């Protein structure tokens, strides 16, 4: 089955050809990283696979100089295991010493998805922020804000919206069309606001010029290209060029991309053991062969097997075990049913602990944001 391919910052569907995007967008493959990065499976296993100007961030880490990690979330529906890819990077960077800025893209959701601000706030707090906290993000040491309400401090707030407005002079309509294809006034404003999200940590009202790393899915790179270009044209400010990293999308159960707008594609953090079992057994796309006999003979394909991909991205920390599973699956020694059983066990063990952690996180979020 080939689905229509749509790929832009507001919609991703169909198959994603990462190598093509790397070339087309002009981002670089992520090469050797310092040892601390290899402690994290996202970097070790190249789930975070590409970057722009990461050198500047690596230097800051090495020389113990301050830097910012800035990213954003689109508050759409349920938080699922795919969202952990970004959440775990936030936590990683926070532990490495980055100042954390997180934008809730409620204005963007309003303008590009017709979702009202109250709904966005509810989803952001209950789903995203609570899960970040339960996964280990220290909320007290993070600047988490809503695009519709940057800060109660008027100087800071003005600076953020002023920047968005001043930046518009340095972008042309043709540039918008070239970068985004189909463009509307709402999308145009959203990308300028996102440019301000990414650049405003460097304003005098915030940290002053400082290296900023923006970890995102590669669909967001058009926003980075625009922000990087205009940040060097604007004369009123001196910005250090933005750095960014790009991660893979988690595959949905039925392959494609895991997406909160398609309940059949995801495993939610609130799923029960039974739900996880059903989803993996019934829906998780298998790289195995149609019959047992054929599987023993030809072996399975872990590269397209969704259960295997979940183990690799999230649930099997042990490289040796993962390699053995991969090898046994490829050779036909390990059956699809067995691989699924193991994956279910791993996911459920993780979710049990996570759902415990959610209880405290809910209270913390309630205290901080009401
Ligand atoms: N557009 C992003 C998304 O759809 C959300 C976002 C808003 C963002 N501001 C940002 C991402 C700043 C990175 C940096 O997910």
Can you describe this structure?
- With 370 residues, the protein is α/β, with parallel strands linked by helices.
- It folds into two domains: 16-247, HUPs (Rossmann fold), CATH 3.40.50.620; 263-369, Tyrosyl-Transfer RNA Synthetase.
- It contains 16 helices and nine strands.
- The chain has helices at residues 18-25, 35-38, 41-44, 55-62, 84-95, 106-113, 117-135, 154-167, 173-180, 185-199, 221-233, 273-283, 292-298, 306-315, 319-331, 336-369; strands at residues 6-8, 11-13, 28-29, 48-52, 68-73, 99-104, 142-146, 212-217, 243-247.
- The strands form two sheets. Strands 3-4-9-8-5-6-7 form a seven-stranded mixed beta sheet, sandwiched between helices. A two-stranded antiparallel ribbon has the order 1-2.
- Strand 1 (6-8) and strand 2 (11-13) form a beta hairpin.
- Helix 6 (106-113) runs antiparallel to helix 10 (185-199) and helix 10 (185-199) packs across helix 11.
- The structure holds tryptophan (TRP).
- Tryptophan binds at residues 9, 70-74, 103, 105, 108, 194, 197-198, 214, 216, 220.
Strand content: 5-15%
What does the overall shape look like? globular
Largest sheet: 7 strands, mixed
What small molecules does the structure contain? tryptophan
Number of helices: 16
Topology, pairings included?
Elements: E1 6-8, E2 11-13, H1 18-25, E3 28-29, H2 35-38, H3 41-44, E4 48-52, H4 55-62, E5 68-73, H5 84-95, E6 99-104, H6 106-113, H7 117-135, E7 142-146, H8 154-167, H9 173-180, H10 185-199, E8 212-217, H11 221-233, E9 243-247, H12 273-283, H13 292-298, H14 306-315, H15 319-331, H16 336-369
Parallel strand pairs: 5-6, 5-8, 6-7, 8-9
Antiparallel strand pairs: 1-2, 3-4, 4-9
Bound molecules: tryptophan.
Residues 9, 70-74, 103, 105, 108, 194, 197-198, 214, 216, 220 line the site of tryptophan (TRP).
């Amino acid at each position: 089955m080939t689905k229509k391919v749509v790929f832009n910052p507001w919609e991703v569907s169909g198959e994603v050809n990462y190598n093509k995007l790397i070339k087309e967008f002009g981002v670089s493959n992520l090469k050797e990283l310092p040892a601390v990065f290899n402690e994290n499976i996202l970097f070790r296993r190249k789930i975070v696979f590409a970057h722009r100007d990461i050198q500047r961030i690596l230097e800051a880490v090495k020389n113990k100089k301050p830097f910012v990690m800035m990213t954003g979330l689109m508050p759409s529906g349920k938080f699922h295991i795919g969202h952990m890819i970004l959440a775990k990077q936030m936590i990683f960077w926070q532990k490495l010493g980055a100042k954390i800025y997180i934008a809730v893209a409620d204005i963007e959701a309003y303008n590009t998805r017709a979702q009202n601000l109250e709904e966005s706030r509810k989803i952001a707090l209950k789903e995203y922020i609570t899960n970040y906290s339960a996964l280990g993000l220290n909320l007290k040491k993070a600047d988490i804000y809503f695009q519709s309400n940057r800060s109660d401090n008027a100087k800071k707030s003005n600076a953020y919206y002023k920047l968005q407005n001043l930046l518009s002079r340095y972008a042309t309509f043709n540039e918008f069309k070239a970068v985004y294809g189909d463009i509307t006034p709402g999308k145009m404003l959203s990308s300028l606001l996102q440019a301000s999200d990414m650049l405003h940590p460097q304003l005098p009202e915030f940290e002053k010029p400082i290296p900023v790393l923006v970890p995102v899915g590669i669909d967001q790179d058009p926003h980075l290209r625009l922000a990087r270009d205009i940040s060097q044209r604007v004369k009123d400010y001196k910005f250090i060029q933005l750095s960014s990293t790009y991660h893979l999308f988690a595959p949905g159960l039925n392959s494609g991309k895991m997406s909160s707008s398609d309940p059949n594609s995801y495993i939610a953090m609130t799923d029960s053991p039974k739900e996880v079992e059903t989803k993996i057994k019934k829906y998780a796309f298998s790289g195995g062969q149609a019959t047992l006999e054929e599987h023993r003979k030809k072996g399975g394909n872990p590269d397209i097997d969704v259960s295997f991909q979940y183990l690799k991205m999230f649930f099997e920390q042990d490289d040796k075990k993962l390699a053995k599973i991969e090898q046994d699956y490829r050779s036909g020694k390990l059956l699809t049913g067995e691989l699924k059983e193991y994956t279910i066990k791993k996911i459920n063990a993780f979710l049990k602990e996570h759902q415990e952690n959610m209880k405290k996180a809910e209270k913390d979020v309630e205290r901080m944001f009401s």
